Predict the 3D structure of the following.
Amino acid sequence: MFHELVVKGFYLVDYPLLIINKNTYEIVYYNKRAEELVEQIRKQKKCLDVDLSEDKKFVFILETPVQKIFYGRCIEIDNDHLLITLYELRRDKPFSGFLYEVIEDLPVLVLFIKDDKIIYINKICEQITGYSRTDLIGKNIQLNLIWDLDRPKFFYHLNRVRSGFKEEGIILGIVDKFGRIKNFLWNFFQTHDWDGEPIIIGIASDISELLEISQNIEKLHKTQTFSEFLRGLVHDFNNILNIILTYLRDLKTAPFSKVEEIINIIEKTIYSWIDINRVILDYSKESKELRIKKIDMIKFLKENLEVFQLIIGEKIRLYLDFGYYKSLCTYGDSAFWRYIFLNLLSNAKDAMEGEGDIYISLSKYEDLVNNKKYLKISIKDTGKGIPEEVLPHIFKPFFTTKEKGSGLGLFLVNHHIKNLEGFIDVVSQVGKGTTFHLYIPLFDDLSVGKSEKRLDILRNKIIYLLEDEEGTREVLKEFLEEKGLKVFSFRSGEELVNEISELPKPDAVIVDINLPGMSGKEVTNYLQKIFPNTPVIYLTGDIFLLSEIPEEEILLKPFKFEELLEKLLRVIN
């Protein structure tokens, strides 16, 4: 069948070699090195059904008497026969042969880890990290390759793998030879080496560029979203400014007995704009702070009735119905609920074209199936109603029927109510009006500690205050010192740096993010090297920075003194 010289050459080859019939998979020839292998194949009734029409590599396993793993290559030598060469993957040469070649050429990083030390890396790992094999093999992976901020996370997942878990989709940073940080998406699993000892396999893909692209897209999306959102806010802001201007004009000619009343109205109106500003923060970073706050809704509505009436105008009559209840408590704070009501009342005002009736009623609702109690807030208007085909879309982002609407108002209201573990139901009839039913978890009482006792936590705490506007800096310093804090104030980062050697360690830092010279972030980076993990509160009026800074570290200007104290309590405590 085959040329005698060729067959003789095959017979002397130093690795198993077989020729099989392409159609029946019957072994028609094998060399000396393949004798024992063929005997076991026939005993175990193994079939080399590789079924390959072109040069291919494959893995072949014999289970007994001792498991042997072979990697092989199949070559078509004529229309009827395949030539198969086999190489045993041996325990004394684990990183050699076909499987080794495959791992070496993979376009993903592969590491073998034993006792926290690297025992193997593939070629792409050398290319990505800039380290050679001799630089890394035998070194502790956590200390020599993983980014220091991700080491606790890496240690946690490695321990889970040792406990039998397979960890997938873990993002960890690697520091290359040149100090650059690259982000990788990792999969980890545990197996055993030839001696039965556990080793961990780490496989990772470089996602640094993808993350950067994703962040840029997210930033672009948020910028576009904010620009749409701000259109609606500008309209609200103009309304509030007009109200303030009207009362300021009245203040010039008002009798002394009316001055305090007008000033109180102006103050409440200004606070309503501060609350609208705050919702931008809530939108850019999903807020969980509200779930630890509680509010008496009856007390809230009584205190804000005047502001709500101002916003909806004189031609709309606002009615409140609390039933027989004296107190009804739920999640949130006054700023949050002012925003929710202002949004829904503004929609009702638009639906009635500036004239009609709005009814706000409170009641209790019990979900007997899920054993939950809710505060039910109903806001009913006598407007034109919402068409049936429009109703399913009103909570979708950017959906609006208004010529100048942003389409984000109801989307955000629904988003925030869901965050409080509540839900909204809407009933509407064209020509008769619309009712929004808000269901929010109900509490039997307002179990909130006295504010003075909470403020005792801040007494004698040391604060660094950096604010370049002298008037603002002095007012904040005076206010904080009245509450018992020790405040060291500075107009610039450079001034702080010059005095740092004589200052005590701060418990918190309050810093304007747009300081002249050293920026607020540069100041905090400098301080973190001297006083690691010091809490920071950034002051800013730039809403576009809100998507870049953690919510707990930011206070949007203008703000209330009480909000600053709440932030300090949270970051210090």
Notes: The radius of gyration is 36 Å.
